[in-house]
Amino acid sequence: MPGVLASIGIAAGMLAGAALAAGAHSASGAGERAGTLLTVAPVNRVLELPHAARTSLITYLSEDAHGRKIVVSGTVSVPKGTAPAGGWPVISWAHGTTGVADACAPSASFPGGPVSDYVDLASAMLDSWVARGYAIAATDYEGLGTPGIHPYMNGRSEANTVEDIVTAARQWNHDIGTRWAVVGHSQGGAAALFTATQAGRRTSKLKLVAAVAMAPGGYGLAQTMEYIVAHPEDKAAIAFLPVILLGAQAAEPSLNIESMLTPAGTRLINAGRVQCLSDLREVASSMEGSQIFVNADVTALKTYLQTQDIVNTRPVVPVMFAQGETDALVPLANTDKIVEMTCRQKKVPVNYRRYPGTDHRGVLKAAEQDVADYLDKLLRPGRTQAPANNCPT
Known about the structure:
Layout: H1 3-21, E1 25-26, E2 37-42, E3 52-63, E4 69-79, E5 88-94, H2 116-131, E6 135-139, H3 155-172, E7 176-185, H4 187-197, E8 207-214, H5 224-230, H6 235-251, H7 263-274, H8 277-284, H9 299-307, E9 319-324, H10 332-345, E10 350-355, H11 362-379
Parallel strand pairs: 5-6, 5-7, 7-8, 8-9, 9-10
Antiparallel strand pairs: 1-2, 2-3, 3-4, 4-6
Helix pairs in contact: 2-11, 3-4, 6-7, 6-8
């Protein structure tokens, strides 16, 4: 295993070894390029999309935030029937927050598991798109299901893994085409915006046509700690804290998050190393925001988090935003501001849909048909209708 693959061979082997025991095979001709397909294995039956001809668990090469090669896992699905001219169009799915531990990888989901509620909800939506003739590529992101801690909300890492799984999927099934869109929710909504920002910079073989950001997170990320101290009763926010801090340290190891924490805060962070968001909510339910931090210098941490805020995104492909009006995790006002910012850039058409009476997860079902209709106008062979733009004029 030559070159850079030798340096990550152990990582690939750890995951591939387990996969091969379940009937996987290694891809032939593995090279050193991002997007190289490494292994293919059957998925847990719960992850099979009913309208897909085939769904597989894969590993592939990507790049982290510093340009180093990494092994990433994910699932890929292809529709039934005969592919259209040019191949199946692709939706690369960027999932919402699950945690930073390996158990939180969507591809590791199982009935009753820590991420099953969210994965089942998302899978129903993805299956509806497969039924319409879209291939699905669903990355786990860096560090979820593969060695290392997931660098949560790192825009470059997430965008790389979202893009590279499309390249890998085309090696898995040669009927998959080059035209694709990214659709993301929550954390993945931010990933979609960062992906739309770097479109065309890394490969000329793929054509990113559009991005869809559903309840995109990451606005005001650097103010998380101040918010938690000021709102100690917000247990939902406290549950996200270990995910944010561990993710930041994974991307920037020089950040000494332990020095910022009380013993209670350290216990919360240690729980985040092994538990997923669903379990962290239970841990956080007995904590107060004022109990977590010591009077430490958080300048470096805040500086890093500011670089990952979605206010830094500059999409270069059309964008659709979808937002539930009763979302308590990603407030409507935040998405309104990001839409306004993107409109002011006047770079691309922006389509914004708001859904009354819809919460954070409810937007997946509420926007499902609108997202499909939006993408049909752009991704279907021979249908490149200009996307609707409802920015204020």
